[in-house]
Amino acid sequence: MLSITSQYLARYRRLADDRSGSLLPVTGAQRRFVLMRSLDPSGRPDLVPMFFAFPHAAIDPERLRAAARRLAARHTALRSRPTVIRGTPVLSVTADPDVSVTRPVLLPGESHADALRRALASWDPRGPALRLFLVHDAEREEDVLAVVLDHAVCDGRSLARIVDELGAAYGEEATDGRPAPEETETELAAYRDAVHGQLAAEEKAQTPEATAYWTDRLRAVHAHAAPPRPARVPEGAAPSGAARARLPAPDEGVSFPGLLDACRAAARELYGPDRAVPLGYPWGGRPAGAEPVIGCFLNTLVFPVDTGHGPGSQVTADEWWDDLDRADVPFDAVVAAVRAAGSRWTGGLDGLLTVDDDTRRPPLRLAGVEGREIHVDGRPVRGPLAISVTQGAEIRLRMVWDRAVLDDETAHRAFDALTRALHPSDHALR
Question: Cβ(341)–Cβ(215) under 8 Å?
């Protein structure tokens, strides 16, 4: 029987034969994002926004727009639009990306954060994958720049390069320049090679042994969060809540299994004991030998978080290492295999965990002026909750949750349990 990746490639080739090179295949990671968007009643895509505060009037919007257009024109993923043709997810490549700098006008009573949330909520998936929004924060006399990408064209490992190259393009004197055709073609060839290499790795990974492993591993999971009930969102409140803390960093940092065990403590507060809670996390990289192209290559792995008193951190570590041996099996193939074995799990996740190293995220500098990265909370989130961990001189924790699914009091109890599991003493700085 053909693997899901083999079936996808066969469908893609039939489409590509009719389109004279304007379509590119997508990785398993991209398939997940594109199909989730197509199944969403509102067609809402997953977005990756980065927010930077600059001194007021320090940014030249036209110069910024020209820089963003040069950046998008250079990188195949950024000048492509994710779409679904005849049920097949693909990237449609455009020759001349039109990246705008939108300046939302504040409505009466709105803050700059309200205006940005409104702008992102109105995202049209038919437009460019990279967009910029610039809004004035009158309270702090700053301008907040939002650099926003469709997640289907960008994973976390692409962000540092995007920030670095946007700043470099802003510093170029030729504000209306374009990359040389040979530069664009070289990048296109590198991107195509990387995607085909990733698909080959995914196809190779879908062995009967790996399928049986994931079927057994996730047989007992199903999403435990209640279906969204919008009436539970407090009147006038943003659709999501947020909590954050800063913790002293151990000399050796926090291991990923340690983070998974901390997520177990949070899940126990949310869903009670003796549950198998599906927690997703991105993992992977570009295929061996591929150029470090901008794109979406990180697979979503699922860890079945046991909310009982736990198997213990060593067992968690052993299980996680076993999972990584099958990490190239794409998410949709895992879900299909588990469903075929009779599981009630439909692929929904009760939480997402992302981990970052603050040394990998350079600040955005525009003509020598450094932007301060900030958060704009309250945006809609996909799934009940998402936990992000940034490691460096300290550990920065952040959790956001969907208020249509989790009430604030319960979410804060879960966040406190997460924090205590990572640092039992009472030294967290909120």
Answer: yes
